[in-house]
Design a protein that fits this description.
Largest sheet of chain B: 6 strands, mixed
Number of strands of chain A: 14
Order of helices and strands of chain B: EEEHEEHEHHHEHEHEEHH
Shape of chain A: globular
Helix content of chain A: 25-40%
Structural class of chain A: alpha/beta
Largest sheet of chain A: 6 strands, mixed
Order of helices and strands of chain A: EEEHEEHEHHHEHEEEHEHEEHEH
Radius of gyration of chain A: 23 Å
Helix content of chain B: 25-40%
Strand order of the largest sheet of chain A: 6-7-8-3-9-10
Distance between the termini of chain B: 34 Å
Radius of gyration of chain B: 18 Å
Oligomer: heterodimer
Number of helices of chain B: 9
Number of strands of chain B: 10
């Protein structure tokens, strides 16, 4: 059985005059035990999608099931078996760490002891501070508490809405290591993120932009579907180099990419032609072929 | 990039009780420079930025910003800098033009100046047709670009950008950096924080804060060489992993 099935979901906000379309005909399926990433910028519709799947918001069109249960008809049953960590910290700031965890356990008719094995790895890191008020925790600790609370009733599907937004590179890596361990316990995880580089840590990803899915595939699949050759170039004057690359007829696109600029070759042009083009400009440069990554793919898909 | 120093900090510190948030940092930033200010959550970036923008008194040390002393002339500093963050930028329920008018008015710009420059800025952003629309009706990427234009509308010497591109799509993120380059070329000094390590590569120099100290400060190229790694991501991880104090 599929863990999550989304079928042609659409969602609009606002009145007749100013309508914002958050989701337009979204469809995808997530397998049991899969770590599925919803990757897209702010405003793409990630939160609306998560709120529909966690039965907190109704879609205008389409259907969806979680654990085989309908998000509209069976909302009560779904709420018992999903874990949801919203993007904004939403635990009780004036309760202690332990009180928050006990509270969530009680609501779901369970106890911390009963499911301690599931949260042990994560919770043990904040347990020394269990008498501290949640509002007084650091960002990283709040995140660990929120994840513990979302897990305490042993959900079959876990929804994490932008858990790593605004989090530094080191803490982000640690968080993804925690997700890997949870996946190993058989929990289905849907995680959204605006960070393209996190796509490679998922089993499969849906790239989403302006309420539409651009692509659904494994990270490797997204990359191999790119289908064009990318050259990475640098020189001592990167601005000037970019201007020259943007003017080059043999390129589909050119944009900064960290230390290098990426130059996407048109199908019938070669790396050699690009080299010759740059040689004519009369300044030293370095150029090499590079593999596209998710961000290259995302930008190419955005243009279509 | 010139050799005029627009920010100087010498042993600048800020303590809250027994906690040293910023621990004797020293550095200079030059006119027209794009200066990347990196660090893990809780490393002390925000506290340091608040001191440099005249919002928080240092506990000890010296600093001047745009030629003004952070202790005695903090009001002057505020008038001579711009500020933008992802969290706080524009008023959603004011129109594009009203936002510009409001901010430029706060900085004491004349009606004549505001009128003329508004036309130029909107034209450059291709937002002329949207001048009377509410900011909340604009796509996020446009909002961020408009917010940056508003932050430098009063022609400050320095603009502080606190994670300006968080959550922005990859195309808009690059357009945003293009605007940063243009502003820097026009002589505005850019002081920017980011969690995107590819953006660290776009800076002239980068500093990395760890536990309240500046543990590294150099060009991206030199930092990678010093730490013997291929990317700024690796430089950051190498330094930030040494941190002993917890985040925020």
């Amino acid at each position: 059985m599929k863990s999550v099935v989304v079928n042609n979901i659409s969602k609009k906000y606002g009145t007749k005059k100013a309508v914002t379309t958050a989701l337009q005909g979204i469809s995808f399926e997530v397998d049991k035990g899969e770590l599925f990433g919803i990757i897209g910028p702010d405003g793409a519709g990630k939160t609306s999608l998560f709120r529909i799947l966690t039965t907190l918001l109704l879609a205008e069109e389409g259907t969806a099931t979680v654990d085989g249960l309908d998000v509209v008809k069976d909302y009560k049953l779904i709420r018992q078996r999903v874990g949801y960590m919203p993007g904004r910290f939403s635990l009780y700031q004036d309760l202690t760490v332990k009180e928050n965890l006990d509270f969530f356990a009680t609501i779901f008719n369970t106890s911390v002891e009963e499911n301690y094995d599931l949260i042990k790895d994560i919770y043990s890191q904040i347990e020394p501070f269990k008498e501290r008020k949640a509002g007084k925790l650091s960002g990283g600790m709040k995140q660990k508490l929120a994840l513990s609370c979302a897990l305490i009733h042993r959900p079959s599907v876990l929804f994490l809405d932008e858990p790593t937004t605004g989090v530094d590179a080191v803490s982000r890596k640690e968080f993804w290591e925690m997700l890997r361990k949870l996946k190993a316990q058989g929990i289905t995880i849907l995680v959204s993120t605006p960070y393209m580089d996190e796509a490679s840590l998922c089993d499969r990803v849906a790239l989403i932009q302006s309420g539409k899915i651009l692509s659904i595939d494994t990270p490797e699949g997204v990359v191999s579907a790119f289908g064009k050759k990318i050259m990475a170039a640098k020189s001592s004057d990167m601005l000037n180099l970019l201007a020259d690359l943007k003017k080059a007829e043999l390129l589909e696109d050119a944009y900064p990419f960290g230390e290098y600029h990426h130059a996407v070759l048109k199908a019938n042009n070669s790396a050699e032609e690009l080299k010759n083009y740059l040689l004519q400009k009369g300044y030293p440069f370095e150029i090499k072929e590079t593999k596209p990554n998710i961000e290259d793919c995302f930008m190419a898909l955005m243009k279509n | 990039m010139s050799t005029d120093r627009v920010i100087t900090a010498e042993h600048l510190s800020k303590r809250f009780g027994s906690f040293t948030a910023v621990d004797a940092i020293s550095f200079d930033v030059y006119r027209g420079e794009i200066f990347g200010f990196l660090g893990a959550n809780g490393a002390g970036k925000t506290t340091a930025m608040r001191m440099l923008s005249g919002l928080s008194m240092p506990t000890s040390g010296k600093a001047s910003v745009a030629g003004f002393d952070v202790y005695k002339e903090n009001e002057k500093i505020k008038q001579n800098i711009g500020y933008m963050s992802q969290k706080f930028s524009l008023y959603e329920d004011l129109t594009v033009k009203e936002n510009i008018r409001f901010y430029a008015g706060i900085y004491g710009k004349s009606n004549q100046f505001i009128k003329e420059k508004t036309a130029v800025v909107l034209d450059r952003l291709h937002l002329t047709a949207e001048g009377d629309k509410l900011v909340k009706s604009l796509p996020l990427g446009w909002k961020q670009k408009l917010a940056f234009s508003v932050a430098i509308f009063h022609e400050p010497k320095i603009v502080f950008l606190d994670e300006p591109t968080g959550g922005v799509d990859p195309v808009t993120r690059r357009e945003f950096w293009n605007m940063i380059y243009q502003a820097a070329n026009a002589g505005i000094t850019i002081f920017v924080t980011t969690h995107y390590m590819d953006e660290a590569e776009y800076c002239n120099r980068v500093s990395i804060m760890v536990d309240g100290r500046i543990d590294a400060l150099d060009t991206p190229q030199q930092l990678k060489k010093t730490y013997g790694v291929a990317t700024m991501d690796d430089v950051f991880l190498k330094l930030a992993r040494k941190a002993v104090r917890s985040a925020d």
